[in-house]
Each structure stands twice: as structure tokens, then as C-alpha cells.
Known about the structure:
2 domains, 9 helices, 10 strands
Amino acid sequence: MSVPKIELKGVKKRFGPKVVLDGIDLSINAGDSLVIIGGSGSGKSVTIKCVLGIIRPDAGTITVDGEEVTHLHGSKRDEYLRKFGMLFQGGALFDSLPVWENVAFGLIQGRGVDRKHAREIAIEKLAKVGLGPEVASLSPAELSGGMQKRVGLARAIAADPQIIFFDEPTTGLDPIMADVINDLIASTVRNLGVTALSITHDLVSARKISNRIAMIYKGKIIWDGATKDIDHSGNPYVDQFIHGSAQGPIQMEVRR
Length: 256
């Protein structure tokens, strides 16, 4: 039986009195594209930060390729992080650097690749997301929101990662550009054969870029299944969330 690419067992995290993760169990196979959905503050981002080691869980285990990773330090942690690429919410590009240097930032700063070779790699990765070499010398401020997302995706794949995280990949985009980015993410994940873990509120995006969806509520995974099955989940929390209804078991705290 194959070892899961990423596996979380009983992962817990609290900040003071606030319990954010209350025993997350999640297994992601190599080549899967899993989207975690859930309301604001439900623990989606904290889950990803725990996998990356940015936040250390209070309890539970996280394994990647069968290796327990919650206590890695120094060079072992650096080596571990090389498995990952990330498309940040809002792009998170450096305004002071040209596009190609944004794409190649991790190669130059993290891996010591010389600038000439790094620029060649950046232009190659920009081509994979549909941007020509003329974009390489522009500053991020000269790009539209959709182009900035493409540059962010090129940066995420620059070092040929095994796993890519997508953090709200369509936030701030109009519906047409969001669809373009969704198609691009889906084709990139498929063509590169990577494992993808995404978090989003956008159900259109979730359906398009994933083969599996998991929903987190009150710090636990309450549903996990094939994307095609989400409309027939039989779970009232999932049904309420995907239909965006104020009526249902999920009650929003609203002061009157």
C-alpha cells in the first residue's frame, strides 16, 4: 500500500483559550488535488502553516512521504521545505524587484543559482503560465491582477516542487479571470504531476481545481470526499456551506 504524500493525524492547535484545530485527520495521496473549504477562522490557513512548520501543533502528527515533520530543525527543515511551492493570496510579489526576479527569488536566495541561469528558468516558467519574455523585465505594479497571479504561479513552480499550496487563488479577480486562473492551476497540477493542497471560499474554484474536497468546521474535518460527490454529501453543514445559506446548522455570531 502506498504511503500518503501528506498525512495529518489528531492535529490540535489552540491560541490561548481559542481552539483552532481540534484533532484534524487528513490523508492526501501523491497526485491528489485536495481543496479544504470552511468558513473564515475555521482553521484552513493554520492547517497549512502546521504542515509547513510555520506553526507547531500542540498535539498529533504530520508526516510527508512517511517522515514525521513537526520537529525538524536547521538543514533538515530547509531540505524539507524544498518540496513545497506556494501561491499566496494576493500574489505577494516584491514591488522592488522585476517580474523575473520575483519568479526566481527562491532559486537565487535559497539555492544559490546564479542570476543568469535563474533568469532563464524564470522565463521558462513564465511561458508555462502563458506569459511571454517581455513580461520578465516589468515591475509587478505594471501588471493586472490576473497577470500578477500568473507570476505568483510561475514562482510557485520555479523550483520544481513536489507539493504546491494554493491560498485563496482567485481572491480579488473578476469571474472570467478567476476561471482562467482556475484552468491554469488545474492544467499546471496535472501536467507537472504534483500534489496540490488548496484553501478557498470559492466553490466554483474548488470544483474546478480539485479531485477531492474536505470541509473543516470547529477544528475538525467533517466531510472528505470526491469533488463530484459534494452536491450529494448528505452532510447538512456541507450543504449549507455550498449553497451559501444563512439557515442551517452553521450559525454565524451576529451582534444586534
